[in-house]
Amino acid sequence: MTTKNEPDARDFERRPGLALTELAEDAARCRDCPLWERATQVVFGEGPIDPLYIAVGEQPGDQEDRAGRPFVGPAGRVFDVALEEAGIDRSTVYVTNAVKHFKWQPRGKRRIHDKPNRSEVVACHQWLDAELGALPIDAVVIALGATAGQSLLGPSFRVGKARGADLTIGPRPLVATIHPSAVLRGDDDQRDALRAGLVTDLRRATTLAREDAPPNVVAVPIIEEMSP
Ligand code: SF4
Questions:
Q1: Distance of alpha carbon 155 from alpha carbon 157, whole angstroms
Q2: What CATH number corresponds to the domain at position 171?
C-alpha cells in the first residue's frame, strides 16, 4: 500500500509515465512551503519517460509559471540552443526544477525572480527525489546551477568546484554546470564565454550517456488508462 504522495511501483512497471503523472497531480496540491500561495500553478518536470538526460534547474520563471511548463522562458531558449550545440537531441532530455513553484518579488508591474531559500529547497526535494525514482537509473543528471546542485548533493555544493569533476548521484553520473540564466545575466563581454562553458559541460554529459536508440518520446504529465 502506498500513500497518496508515493509512486506506486506496480504502476511504474506497467506504465512509467503514469507514475510521473500522478506525482505531478500530487505536487499540484502541495502546501509544504509558502511558495504555492503566490504562484499561478505548480510547474512539474516534463519530457520523455526514458530520457538519456535529466536536467535539473532552480525554479520556474515568470513564463514557466504562467504556462505551467518548465524551461519555456528565455533561459529555456538558451538551454535549447546550448543542447543543440552540444549535440544533444532535446527530445532525449527530461527537464525539471529543484523547486516547483515560482518565487518572485513585485517590481512595479513585473514579477522578479527571487532565489528560493534553503528551507524551501529542502521542502521541495521530495518531488525531485520522487521524479528521479520514476526515471531510468542510467540517465545522466545535469545540475544547472547552485540550487539544483545543492538540492541534489547537499548545501556544500559549489558550481565552480563541481564543474568538470566526476560526480555521481546514486547510480547515475552527474554533470554540474551553470544555470542558463547566468548567460542572460552576464555582461556583453562575458556572455559568449558563459555560453561556451555551458556547451562544454553539456558535451561532457554526452560522453557519459548510455548509447541507445532515441527514447519513446512521451511527454509527461499524460494521463492514460491502465490495462485491466
Ligand atoms: S515549492 Fe515545492 S514544497 Fe513548496 S509548495 Fe511548491 S511543490 Fe510544495
A1: 5
A2: 3.40.470.10
pLDDT of residue 3 exceeding 80:
no
Query: For 100-149, how does the pLDDT look when each residue is reduced to its tens digit (9 = 90+)?
Result: 999 999 999 999 999 999 999 999 999 999 999 999 999 999 999 999 99
Distance 113 CA to ligand 1 centre (A): 16
Share of the chain above pLDDT 70, in %: 86
Task: Quick: pLDDT tens for 62-94.
Answer: 999 999 999 999 999 999 999 999 999 999 999
The boundaries of the domain holding residue 177 are 9-206
Whether the CB of 25 sits within 6 Å of ligand 1: no
Does the beta carbon of 30 sit less than 6 angstroms from any atom of ligand 1? yes
> Cα dist. 21→44, 68, 131, 153 in Å?
9, 14, 10, 25
- 3-state SS string over 17-65? HHHHHHHHHHHCCCCCCHHHHCCCCCCCCECCCCCCEEEEECCCCHHHH
Q: Does the beta carbon of 109 sit less than 6 angstroms from any atom of ligand 1?
A: no
Instruction: State the distance from the centre of ligand 1 to the C-alpha of 132, rounded, in angstroms.
Output: 17
What does pLDDT average to over the chain? Answer: 89
d(CA 226, CA 221): 15
Residue 58 lies in a domain: yes
